[in-house]
Fold this protein.
Amino acid sequence: MNRTLARAAARGAVWNFLTVLAERGFGFLVLGVMLRHIPLASVGVVALGSAISDLVRMLVAGGAVTALPLTGFAYGARRISYSLVGIVQYVGPTLQLLTGVFLFGEAFTRTQAVGFGLIWGALAIYATDGLWRSRAARVASVVVVPATAE
């Protein structure tokens, strides 16, 4: 009973520590979730040897494989405008659609193609409007100094 309590306390301490760190980024939270599900051999020692089954190893590796791109996306999304982030969010599902249709032979009806075209048409209008507005703001911010007559 004592050993079980010690394991739970160690897991809880690691979880609490990583949850606090998660305020700085999503990756720490995912790491915390992964560590919480690894059985501990004793207080503070993670049993990474034969105590972990293949399934748990795959889950941990899958979590890391999932967390790395998400952490990279969060890092990059802080450095660009929110409107560009919104447009980029459409790229992933579009690539999945194209993969399904062209590589796996999924059905893509005319109705779906019209809906797809309307969505990307609206995105093109939105992006063009944003581009025009940013150019107009840049031109308006240029100060013209009149030449002095000498």
